[in-house]
Amino acid sequence: MGMTNRNAVVTGAGSGIGRGIVEAFLADGYTVWASDLSDDRLAETREALNNSEALRTRAVDVTDYAGLEGLADTVIGEGGSLDAWVNCAGIFDGYADVLETSPELWDKVLTINLTGSFYGARIAAARMTEQKSGRIITVGSVAGQRGAADGIAYAASKAGIEGMTRRLAVDVGHAGVTANVVAPGVIRTNLRATSEEILGDLVSSQQRGIGVSNPEFLDFLIPAKRSGLISEVAAVVVFLASDGAGYVNGQVLPVDGGWTAS
Q1: What is the pLDDT of residues 160-197, one digit of tens each?
Q2: What's the pLDDT tens digit per position in 40-60?
Q3: Would you state the pLDDT for residue 137?
């Protein structure tokens, strides 16, 4: 965005794809504000990234609107601008079908994945439209387009993210701000473990053992014949935050080895 000092916020930055996105932004010269529900996971991120001087961390629950607002205001107050906001925080429902999904599980997944992303998008949009620049990027999933990819609550939350982002793009485009979704396919992360920590007994032990990242699935449905890398997802996020992506708005970019093309 033509600025020497660029500031990015990444939620869900304590592990997995979120941590990978933080690493990619740091490599591209950003000051990065890494946010996560867990102080312990943020400490692991700091250690994994060698306590980079350009890395800031703050524990914030994405369902806490005031907490996210405080984070955004701190970024602008200390960094001068909010150049990229990445909604990456999310949880996974263990492939629970409609009858296995309790109202409590549904509410928890939708609140964190969809409402949390809306909170971040709204907070970022308010500040970016005022400064007339910025990138809002939300991590979705191929589950937003493939009903068999994940559980019903997770699929609904990711489909909702796509619809929300299309409208968001209409709302912010006039101000030189873009809003897009990066939709990973099968990526090897620790999302299952962190989700179980948050959901506890809301997901059954039977559902915890189900997965699609097995050799037969990859060979049959994924043209690339492999799982994706966190770095491959992060690279697309950094591209969408760049000047070169200034005319990419309201789009869903799959990073799925060709799954959605097959």
Answers
A1: 999 999 999 999 999 999 999 999 998 987 665 666 66
A2: 999 999 999 999 999 999 999
A3: 99
To the question of domain 7-255 being in CATH 3.20.20.70, the answer is no
| Distance of alpha carbon 208 from alpha carbon 210, whole angstroms | 6
The question of whether 247 is a catalytic residue gets the answer no
In angstroms, the CA 171 to CA 190 distance is 34
**Active-site pick, 30, 95, 119, 154:** 154
CA 156, CA 51: separation in Å to the nearest integer? 37
pLDDT at 2: 42
How buried is residue 232: exposed, middle or buried, by Cβ count under 10 Å (0-12/13-18/19+)? Answer: middle
- Identify the sign of the CA torsion 86, 134, 64, 97: negative
CA distance 200 to 224: 34
pLDDT number for residue 149: 74
Q: Where are the domains of the chain?
A: 7-255
